[in-house]
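seq as requested:
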Amino acid sequence: MKKFFLMLFLVWLSGNCLGADGVLPGEGTSDSPYLIEDKADFNAFCSDSSKWLAGVYVKMASDIALSGSTFETALIAYDTSGSSGYQGQTYSGSFDGDNHTIYDLSINNSRSYVGLFGMIGSEGSVSNLNLKDVKLISSDGDGIGGLCGINYGSINSCYVTGSVDIFSQNSWGSTDSGGGLCGANNNGSISNSYFIGSVTGRAGLCGKNSATITNCYSSVSARYFEHNDYNGGFCNVNYGVITNCYVNGTISAIAYGFGYDDEPHSFSVGAFCGRNRGEISNSYANNFYEVVQEGGLAYVFTYGFCSRQDASSAIMQNCFWDIEKSGRSVGYDNDSGTVDNVLGLTTAEMQTEATYTDAGWDLSVDDGDAADWTMPVNGYPLLGWQLPIAVISESSLSIPAGYYSSVALEFQVASMVSEPVDWTISGIENCSWISSATPSIGCSNPTESVTVNIADDLVVGDYTCELIFRDLSDRILIKPISLHVYAPVDSAKIELLAENWLQGNCIETDYYLDGVIDMLDFGQLAQCWLMEDVTYIRNTDGDGFETGNITTFNWELSEDPNYWHVDSTHAFEGDYSARAGTITVDQPSTLSTTFVCTDVYSVSFVYWISSEDDTLNFYIDGVQQDPISGMSNSWAELSYTIDSGVHTLEWIYSKRFMYSSDGDVWIDDVKFVPVAPL
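struct tokens:
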């Protein structure tokens, strides 16, 4: 009888791992690991628990396809009892996938501790392993994930794609330990890893975290039903530390209204986390939401980031969610703990680098270590390892047509990870204004310089190009660059200035803005030689008041004694302003000027009125503008825009009562500023 059951167990074990007829070459050491070169070697590794011990090293040397088989347990370090609690040998060795892929893992059962690995022990590590097209279905169980059920060890640089479906519509369960990559992370670490696919009932990356998860993401289509209290697109329940992580995709929260034992029941969903009792920092969510509410015994509450934080020591800080994409203005329910700088932002703000650098996120490759994040063009932040290269440079250049030679854009291509990164450049072939890029193939360790040379004799205009930087894993970074070729300030501007020599104000070549074309304007032109345009200087003496003699500017005054004059009682700038003359009622005091504008100009001035009986009216070409009256006893400014042509400005001061006094109105800082150049 014992032999019969032993034979049954061996048959079950053989079927579970597809047979065990392979021989793993190697010695199982770090220098000479056991190599999985084919499917037979993989089967042998699954069958031989001595290969799972601490200190034993295993490395994949080829991809493995598991199509055509559906399993009932984990393939490695599986639970042997099927009852409460893990019974079996944990995986405590070192498994290096060497960036190879296991395809089509399929498990369908109601057991716990399910995944490629059932349980990774505290001394175990799994790295550089890819699982594609995983299909896990479970109607119950604790610890269910594509890569592993429970992790006490180290998971680094692994990914899973596929589907993990844990609860059916009408079943209830209490476990939080289910996720696309890992069911539960207990005192272990998960880093630089991700899950892409669909989940039903549990989290996108890891169901329950009690340790550390860093630099990970999930891109998930998630469905949550009323059977579980707290649900999250990245993590269901967090008791540990999660930092530098993100989630995107679609979340469907479905309340069919069954309730629990015919009693009303509510459940909540957070785009990133269902329940936080630990620490979450420097992370974000940008998920679409779909809510289905049917029946009256179940209610769903949805949040933009975390559905509930309810521990006094819990922390959420420097985290964000997209309020436009999620349609959720409320990001979290904070029952206790600390929330610092957790904000809902617009899509534009979520795609702005300053949003994250202002919050202290590490996007720099110049601070002595690899950047945690990188910012693609018109996109959300990506983890540094997702785009292992960064291009450091100005992305645009302006040059004068006909006056340049050997112009180039200089780049620094930096490694965003701890090791060197090989890359190539393409896209130049589509940009005729670029003559070459040197080098076009390189290795950043940690940086390498690239020179993009500009073609000669380009005509005036704007030029754009997209350079494509590609690493050996076919990950790409697109760097948009642009070139502006302009007609420079040269002899043509000198000729125009000469044509206007010694003419009046409001002329295009009045660069010094003092009302006359002279050597001051020539000097300003010379300072801007070969620039795109001449910089205009606002001359504080442009209105002539600071000279102490109002006639130095082309002002026209009313007859004595009603004329305007320079006065030092009030001054906005300098020591002097213009003051209206001494008048009585129906005896206005007028100040005016006429000029020719060659372009659109802004005319502005400040005024001061110290009598309620005084009125100052301002006219442009005989048309009264805003009436000015009352007592201001302080400077106030008015500004108007005038088109090109001949224009007359008038300031007319008048009194309403029959007595004579010196004018109680002052104006100052009269400016004529071309709109376009400034």
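The mean pLDDT is 83.
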